[in-house]
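Batch manifest, entry 17 of 40.
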Amino acid sequence: MVLIARLHKFLTATVDEKSRSRTIFWLTLSLTFAAIYGLLGIQQAFSAEYVVQDDARQHVFWMMRFVDRELFPNDFIANYFQSVAPAGYSTLYKIAVTIGIHPLLLHKILPLFLGLISTYYCFGLCLEMLPVPLTGFIASLLLNQHIWMTDDLASATPRAFIYPIFLGFLYYLSRNSLLPCLGAIALIGLFYPPYALVAAGILVLRLLSWENGRLHLSGDRTNYLFCTTGLGIIFLVMLPYALDKSEFGPTYTAAEAKQMGVFAPDGRNAFFRPNPVDYWLTGRGSGMFPKSLFTPVTHCVALLFPLLLFWRSAFPLASRITSKIWLLLQLFLGSSVMFLAAHATIFKLYQPGRYTAYSLRFIIVSISAIVLTLIIDGICHWALTTEITFQFKNLVALITTGIIAVAVVFYPCFVEDFPTVGYVEGKMPSLYNFFQQQSKDILIASIASEADNIPTFSQRSVLVAKEYSVPYQKGYYSRFRQRVSDLIRAQYTDDRAVLQNFINSYGIDFWMLTRNALTLRYVEDYGWMDDFDATPEAMLALKQGKIPALAPAMTSCAVFQNETVVVLEASCIVKMTKN
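Output type: C-alpha cells
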C-alpha cells in the first residue's frame, strides 16, 4: 500500500510552490527526449554527403542566392518559390547566411531546436489545463513522437514553424500574457500566414461565453484587449500578402481545377474525390482529418476522454482540469471555420486541410495526455481505496501504470526506421560535381527524376522538374506546363527543326536523359508525364516506329554519363540538327 501511495503521489501530484522541483524534473525529462529524437533526425541528415529533406528541395534550394547572388539568374522556378516564401522564413535563412550558416546546413539542424521549443510550450500549455507535471511530460513526448514520425518539422519549411510558434501563442493566451502572445501572433503571420487566420478566429471566439445554457458576450475585459490588439497585429502582418500582385497569380478557380488531371482522384495533387467521406473528412488536402492524426497510435486514448468525464467520480484528478481546456474547443471551432472558408474559396486560402491538420494534432496530443494521467490516477486511487486483496490491487495498479509507461516511452522502439522524416539521398555525386563545374547561368533540360536534385546539389537551374510541379497558381503552373509539354514534344519529335527551335527558344545548355528515355516503355511507365498535352503525341510517334531526332545525340553529344543518365551538350545537338 505504501508503494502505491508513493507512486501515486510522485506521478499525479499537482503543481504548487513546493513541487517546483518536480515540475523542473518532468520538464527536463521532456526536453531530454526531444533532444534525443532530434539528434536521431540529425544523424539521418548527415548520414551522407548529399542528403536533403524532400520538401526542402522546393523551399530551400533558391536560398543559395543568399550565399552567391550569381546563382539561379532569371530562374523562373527559383523566382516562384522565393515569391511564395513567408517573409519571416526567408529572413531567418538570410540572417543565418550572414553569420556563416549555409541554408542546407541550417535546414538540417533547425528541426532539433524547433522541437525543443515546441516541447517547452506543449509542456506548459498542458499544465495550464491540468496542473500535473506528468501530463506535460506525456503530452510533450506524444508530440515529439508524432513530429518525428512525420516530415513537417524535419522539412524546416514554413510549416515546420507552426509547432513552436502556434503552441507558444496558445500557451501565452492561456496565461493571459499579452505582449508575448502578440509577439507569437506576429511570428505566425511571418512564418505560416494561414494560421494567423486561425488565431484570429480563436481571439474572436473568446469574446463569447456560455452561461446558464445560453451564449453571451464575455464580461472579461481581458478578452477584448487580446482580441483588438491581436486582430490589429494580424491585419498588419497579413496586409502585405493581401496587397501582393505576384506575377505568378492568380490561383486556379474551382471550375478550372476540376478540369485538370493533376487534381483528379489519381492525380499527383489529388483533391476532387467522388466519395464525400474522402473529400470532406480524410482526403489529403481536402479532408478535415489528417491520416496521421492518430500517429502514434497511443493518440487513440483521446477518444476515451468523454467516457472518463462521464465517470469522473472514479477519476478524482478530473476535478483539477481547469477552464482553460476550453481553449481546445475554441481552437477546433476557429480551425473548422477556416477549413470551410478555404473550401468555399478553393485554393485562394490554400488547402483546406491545412487549417485543421495541426490544430487537431495539438488537441489530440493534449487530450491524450490528460486521459492517460486520469487513468493512472484512477487506477492508483482505486488501489488505495478499494477493499480487495492487497497484492491483487498492487499488481493491477503496477501493471496498468507499467503498460502505459512502456506504450508511451518506448513506442518508437516498435517503429521501423524511427524517426521517419523524409530525407532524400542523392545517389549521383559525380553528376552533381559535373554540373557544379559548369557556368552558373546554365539551364538544364530534363524530365528525368534526377532533375529534382540538380538545383539543390549542383546549384544549377533546370527548365522543369517533377518536384517543382506545384499546380495552384495559374501564372506559375500554366507556364510550367507549357515548358514540360514543349520539352516532351522536342525530346520525342523526329523533326530536327522542332528540336533545334526548342533549344534556341529556351536557351538550353545541357540535356539530361535516362538511358531508356527515348523508348515507348519509358513514356508509358513514367506516370508524371500523363498530365501533359504532348505525351499522347510522343507515345503515338514511338508506336509508329519514328526515331526521335535526339537519338543520335545520345552518343555523339554526350559530355557526361553513368549507368543511369546521359548528359548531352545542347550546342552539339544544334550542330547535329543542321547537318
